[in-house]
Amino acid sequence: GYYYARVYGASGAINQGYTLTLDPPANGTPSVIVTDPPSGTHPVLASKETYTIQWQTSDPEANDTWVTVYVNRQPVLDGNEIQLETSVNTQGALGFHIFNTAEFDLGTYYVYCEVTDGGTKSGSWAPGTLYLVDPVTGIGNEQGITQNVLLPNAPNPFYSSTTLRLQLAAPNQVQWRIYDLAGRQVREIFTGFMPEGQHVMTWDGRDSSGQEVAGGIYFNTVVVGNEKNVSKIVRVQ
């Protein structure tokens, strides 16, 4: 930071002939850990949903820190990254930024947070990615599908039925089921082999015996090979 000094002579008058040398301690580098989005791909309905990016900072001297959030289509700082906003983050606090998806194209985004204490800086990438999808079709604009994604169901919450969507990067065995909060299987949606691409199923809010389930929270669960994907569904009555 900046230092201002006055040197006084014996009589108390200011004397500009003196010199002053400052030797401040070395300033340690702050660090940031991006905690959200966590590992995995996180679908977000573009223009209809926001996403809260979260991070944790620390500074060796317990200085205040400032975090700048960027997103990019690739996990590199190549000049194409987009700065979202600079936020003040207090020592040890969990900072956050609300990502407004209405301003961005569909597709995959990587999140990078850069932290500074006013002197030195560092940064890190989020362990997960955000996947902006069309709120009607549930798909992005990728030319090729490179990962399995359990897309958001719609409507959610739902009353009579809801549409379930799954995007497969390659042909595979799939187990698609609905579970309740107690972990009990409520309904088997599909079990078997599926080709790559997007797949659409409908859940009518009934269990395996054909009875309507009670209102509440349920889990849309898909197992693709050894990979498990889960999303939350809310049934209202």
UniProtKB/TrEMBL annotation:
Domain FlgD/Vpr Ig-like: start-end pairs: 163-223
Pfam families listed in its UniProt record: FlgD_ig
NCBIfam families linked: Por_Secre_tail (TIGR04183)
Protein name (record): T9SS type A sorting domain-containing protein
Source species of the chain: Eiseniibacteriota bacterium
